[in-house]
Fold these 2 entries.
Entry 1:
Amino acid sequence: MGRSIYFTDRELSMVRDYVFEATDILGNASDTAEQVDEDMENGLGSALRKLYKGCIGESKYAKYKTKRG
């Protein structure tokens, strides 16, 4: 199951900034784009949607929903 991890606002901002840049870079590299797409569909996208909730960049991850099962 999941667990709760608590971050300060500054920590969350730094993580969001880093993740936003990293997913863009990885998604644009021809040899990793397919893997990033697969990871986004298999849980990374829903995790990022939760991380960005209420922040700039949230809409980029809106299509990813948490999969149960």
Entry 2:
Amino acid sequence: MVTEPPALAPLIVEEALRQALAGDPRGGGMLLAPLISESRRECFALCAMLATAALRGTQPNGPNGMYVLEVEDTWTGRPGRIEDLTPDVRFAARFAAALANEDRPAAQALFDALTAGAHTETGVDRLVDGVLALFGMAVATTRALIDEQRNDSNHRED
């Protein structure tokens, strides 16, 4: 009986997040490079893993249990527009929302648009920027969850 070795991608993503949370986001991001360049399928799976990590602990905020993007201008505190986000962050937010809403065709279309032209230097840069924006979201969510757990355990000890 032949058994498949465990998938390395989730372990790589876990280590990348661990390094980023330990203060080395650049080093963590560099670990993702082979997954980005491996294949379109592997890169899509990477984006899905990062989006899943970025959404951990979140709840739907729209009607019918849907995730709705809400953009806030951090300078004014007022609602912003998705068009005001940089292209990489706009991709990451839309991709994560599509996956959260189980809209695989929309997630695939966003990914296809991101990877269009990936055979050029500009296209590769756009792809890497989009994946790293998802990575940044995943790091921020993971950090917030860790902080929340620490705060909860500190309050229980009081």
